[in-house]
Amino acid sequence: MTHLMLLLLIIVHVLGATIWTGGHLILALRFLPDALKKKDIAIVEQFEERFETLGLIALAGQIISGL
User: Fold this and answer.
1) Do 44 and 35 form a contact (C-beta atoms < 8 A)?
2) For a FRET experiment, which of 3, 29, 38, 65 has its CA 20 to 30 Å from that of 13?
């Protein structure tokens, strides 16, 4: 494996981990408390609808990079 290929795999993996973790932190710190306070699951569902595609792409990037 060349150094360039390894570098690209690491970049894909770290970027995917950042997006995946960041999305869950935003959910946990911003949307979940509001949903619990208002007892409204729709708040979480709306966030999930917006984040799902990006989150799954990020997760796939982590799996494909295999690190």
Assistant:
1) yes
2) 29
Cα distance between residue 65 and residue 35, in whole Å: 34
Geometric angle at alpha carbon 25, from 23 and 27, rounded to 5°: 70
pLDDT in tens, 23-36: 999 999 999 999 99
Q: How many CB atoms lie within 10 A of CB 9?
A: 16
Residue keyed to tokens 């995946």: 20
Is 1 in contact with 50 (CB distance < 8 Å)?
A: no
Q: How far is Cα 38 from Cα 18, in angstroms, rounded to an integer?
A: 29
Q: Coil, strand or helix: which one is 11?
A: helix
